[in-house]
């Protein structure tokens, strides 16, 4: 039995939606950060599925670019989070809300 | 055995045109040189050396782009590196605009940033790397390359926004920018994946060829992908309703970084947006034009209205930059070669004046001992008498942003409105002109504050020449003469360019009208 490609696309769309929902609703910066990563991986799943369906290697190559960029983002993102944590000893966005208006 | 396998599967490497990617190579190479030098001659000993290398690289990049433009005029545009990079008039002109913004920031920025964050090669390196990303985006002829350029630019900008690590506002701004930047990149990328699924390619020219030869029966995936790509760009250029991050980030970032970010992020994102929409999705114009119209009108209106209630100058300028983004979007929604030209003109004029504006605001902040990123209208009241030169130059740049005649800002606003009228969208032109009038109100309020007589509060005069500032990391902040000289050169250059192209706009118009997109 083979699973049709559209199932993978639906799973990817659900993952992407979960990630977007997480970024917008969660208050913990680490979880928000993980949600962004979840969105990127949903994109990767979409790319691979389409590459398989179209029988084209381009989509698989795109995944490698996304992975590398995501790794670079993690470096900077965790650096910023560590800098916040050092000064506040908390990683909840409710505590970093001096800028508004 | 392997030999036969290899001969069966020859890997054809694309030929790399080093001439076409020369601008990136110069900036990236200079960034590596600065880092390598700092490891050998010492991080803090030679700040002038790093700035000199950065300045030289920026000028060299501009000269290389100008030369590319000359060659393209002679031999015609071309695609390079297996069609991933477009070597056309558009990318060369954007390269020149990037060089102008980078030169001005190299002059103005490092002095301020290193006086609050400590000396070192990092700031110059990050400036060079982010400009590399901007040029990659301008040249990208493939959605994945657009994404790579976007991330090279953005990751450097996240760090620059958080450069004053000891300051809570700077950290907060960096975090907000990072999370929303990452979010918008993911949205953009999902759009790219859907477009890839619908058309079978991420190459802009191949997408256009596919769409012109195939009628998609069920093109929901394609249209959703285009919409997501627009949302991603909307975040990057801070168009309403995707603007929520920008006032906070503008306020929290070191002030000269704010100016650079306002200029460079807009140049790069609009360059990529124009190319993607003009090359790949020009046939889908009826679908995406209403979306861009909505973004443009909302940005124009809300940018101007929200700026009115701000007393915080940096936040006010953030909303004003949203208003400017709406104006530049007018050139995008026209989707004609005239619209592309007018957007480029606006980007060039705006980036020069915004960098100068924030340079002057940094200067006022240093004088007032307020480096934390808060400077209200009351703080600048009566500045015209205490620092006439600063006040007059700031007034010129603010009036240029408002679109006063005899400045490049006037021609810029005039030409994008003409572009909209040329595609018979009269009501948008009316909306744009009304918001320009509303925006003039808050620009004038700032100018009036500069030259008003009353110095309402007692402490203000003392605060402007602080002996002991309020403690913390900003204590005793002073700029050395060695860093004040380039700052003033940069500010005067920005004012001079703004006024010069206001008096002689045809020179700049001739340049940007050579910036044709090739497809």
TrEMBL record, chain B:
<feature type="transmembrane region" description="Helical">
    <location>
        <begin position="487"/>
        <end position="509"/>
    </location>
</feature>
<keyword id="KW-1278">Translocase</keyword>
<feature type="transmembrane region" description="Helical">
    <location>
        <begin position="287"/>
        <end position="308"/>
    </location>
</feature>
<feature type="transmembrane region" description="Helical">
    <location>
        <begin position="344"/>
        <end position="366"/>
    </location>
</feature>
<feature type="domain" description="NADH:quinone oxidoreductase/Mrp antiporter transmembrane">
    <location>
        <begin position="140"/>
        <end position="436"/>
    </location>
</feature>
<feature type="transmembrane region" description="Helical">
    <location>
        <begin position="144"/>
        <end position="165"/>
    </location>
</feature>
<dbReference type="Pfam" id="PF00361">
    <property type="entry name" value="Proton_antipo_M"/>
</dbReference>
<dbReference type="InterPro" id="IPR010096">
    <property type="entry name" value="NADH-Q_OxRdtase_suN/2"/>
</dbReference>
<feature type="transmembrane region" description="Helical">
    <location>
        <begin position="216"/>
        <end position="239"/>
    </location>
</feature>
<feature type="transmembrane region" description="Helical">
    <location>
        <begin position="92"/>
        <end position="113"/>
    </location>
</feature>
<feature type="transmembrane region" description="Helical">
    <location>
        <begin position="53"/>
        <end position="72"/>
    </location>
</feature>
<keyword id="KW-1003">Cell membrane</keyword>
<keyword id="KW-1133">Transmembrane helix</keyword>
<comment type="function">
    <text>NDH-1 shuttles electrons from NADH, via FMN and iron-sulfur (Fe-S) centers, to quinones in the respiratory chain. The immediate electron acceptor for the enzyme in this species is believed to be a menaquinone. Couples the redox reaction to proton translocation (for every two electrons transferred, four hydrogen ions are translocated across the cytoplasmic membrane), and thus conserves the redox energy in a proton gradient.</text>
</comment>
<keyword id="KW-0874">Quinone</keyword>
<keyword id="KW-0472">Membrane</keyword>
<feature type="transmembrane region" description="Helical">
    <location>
        <begin position="120"/>
        <end position="138"/>
    </location>
</feature>
<feature type="transmembrane region" description="Helical">
    <location>
        <begin position="387"/>
        <end position="406"/>
    </location>
</feature>
<keyword id="KW-0520">NAD</keyword>
<feature type="transmembrane region" description="Helical">
    <location>
        <begin position="426"/>
        <end position="444"/>
    </location>
</feature>
<feature type="transmembrane region" description="Helical">
    <location>
        <begin position="260"/>
        <end position="281"/>
    </location>
</feature>
<feature type="transmembrane region" description="Helical">
    <location>
        <begin position="317"/>
        <end position="338"/>
    </location>
</feature>
<protein>
    <recommendedName>
        <fullName>NADH-quinone oxidoreductase subunit N</fullName>
        <ecNumber>7.1.1.-</ecNumber>
    </recommendedName>
</protein>
<feature type="transmembrane region" description="Helical">
    <location>
        <begin position="20"/>
        <end position="41"/>
    </location>
</feature>
<comment type="subunit">
    <text>NDH-1 is composed of 14 different subunits. Subunits NuoA, H, J, K, L, M, N constitute the membrane sector of the complex.</text>
</comment>
<keyword id="KW-0813">Transport</keyword>
<dbReference type="InterPro" id="IPR001750">
    <property type="entry name" value="ND/Mrp_TM"/>
</dbReference>
<comment type="similarity">
    <text>Belongs to the complex I subunit 2 family.</text>
</comment>
<feature type="transmembrane region" description="Helical">
    <location>
        <begin position="177"/>
        <end position="196"/>
    </location>
</feature>
<keyword id="KW-0812">Transmembrane</keyword>
């Amino acid at each position: 039995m083979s699973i049709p490609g559209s199932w993978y696309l639906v799973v990817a769309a659900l993952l992407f939606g979960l990630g977007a929902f997480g970024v917008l609703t969660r208050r913990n910066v680490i979880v928000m950060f993980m949600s962004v990563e979840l969105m990127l991986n949903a994109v990767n799943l979409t790319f691979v599925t389409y590459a398989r369906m179209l029988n084209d290697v381009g989509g698989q190559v795109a995944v490698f670019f996304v992975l590398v960029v995501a790794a670079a983002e993690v470096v900077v993102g965790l650096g910023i989070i560590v800098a916040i944590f050092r000064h506040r000893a908390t990683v909840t966005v409710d505590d970093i809300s001096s800028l508004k208006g | 055995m392997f030999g036969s396998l290899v001969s069966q599967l020859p890997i054809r490497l694309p030929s790399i045109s080093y001439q076409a990617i020369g601008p990136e190579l110069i900036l990236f190479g200079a960034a590596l040189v600065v880092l390598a030098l700092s490891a050998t001659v010492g991080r803090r000993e030679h700040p002038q050396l790093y700035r000199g290398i950065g300045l030289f690289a920026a000028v060299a990049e501009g000269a290389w782009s100008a030369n590319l433009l000359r060659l393209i005029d002679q031999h015609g545009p071309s695609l390079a590196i297996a069609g991933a990079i477009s070597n056309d008039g558009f990318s060369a002109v954007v390269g020149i605009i990037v060089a102008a913004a980078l030169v001005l920031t190299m002059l103005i920025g490092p002095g301020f940033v290193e006086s609050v964050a400590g000396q070192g090669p990092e700031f110059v390196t990050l400036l060079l790397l982010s400009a590399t990303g901007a040029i990659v985006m301008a040249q990208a002829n493939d959605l994945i390359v657009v994404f790579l350029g976007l991330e090279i630019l953005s990751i450097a900008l996240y760090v620059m926004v958080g450069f004053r690590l000891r300051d809570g506002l700077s950290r907060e701004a960096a975090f907000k920018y990072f999370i929303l930047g990452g979010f918008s990149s993911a949205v953009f990328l999902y759009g790219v994946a859907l477009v890839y699924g619908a058309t079978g390619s991420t190459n802009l020219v191949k997408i256009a060829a596919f769409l012109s030869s195939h009628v998609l029966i069920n093109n929901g995936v394609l249209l959703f992908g285009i919409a997501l790509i627009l949302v991603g760009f909307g975040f990057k250029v801070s168009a309403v309703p995707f603007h929520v991050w920008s006032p906070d980030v503008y306020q929290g970032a070191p002030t000269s970084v704010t100016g650079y970010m306002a200029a460079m992020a807009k140049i790069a994102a609009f360059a990529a947006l124009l190319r993607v929409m003009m090359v790949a999705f020009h046939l889908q114009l009826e679908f995406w034009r209403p979306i861009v119209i909505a973004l443009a009108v909302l940005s124009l209106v809300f940018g101007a209205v929200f700026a009115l209630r701000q007393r915080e100058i940096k936040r006010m300028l953030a909303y004003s930059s949203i208003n400017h983004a709406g104006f530049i979007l007018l050139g995008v929604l026209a989707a004609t070669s005239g619209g592309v030209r007018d957007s480029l003109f606006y980007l060039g004029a705006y980036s020069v004046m915004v960098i100068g504006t924030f340079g002057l605001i940094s200067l006022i902040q240093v004088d007032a001992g307020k480096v934390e990123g808060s400077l209200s209208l009351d703080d600048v009241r009566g500045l015209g008498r205490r620092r006439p030169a600063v006040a007059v130059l700031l007034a010129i740049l603010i009036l240029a942003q408002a679109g006063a005649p005899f400045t490049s800002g006037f021609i810029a606003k005039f030409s994008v409105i003409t572009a909209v009228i040329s595609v018979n969208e009269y009501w948008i032109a009316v909306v744009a002109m009304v918001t320009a009038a509303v925006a003039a109100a808050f620009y004038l309020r700032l100018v009036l504050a500069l030259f008003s007589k009353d110095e309402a509060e007692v402490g203000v005069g003392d605060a402007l020449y602080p002996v002991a500032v309020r403690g913390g990391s900003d204590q005793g902040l002073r700029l050395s003469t060695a860093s004040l000289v380039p700052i003033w050169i940069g500010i005067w250059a920005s004012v001079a360019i703004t006024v010069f192209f206001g008096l002689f706009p045809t020179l700049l118009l001739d340049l940007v009208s050579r910036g044709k997109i090739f497809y």
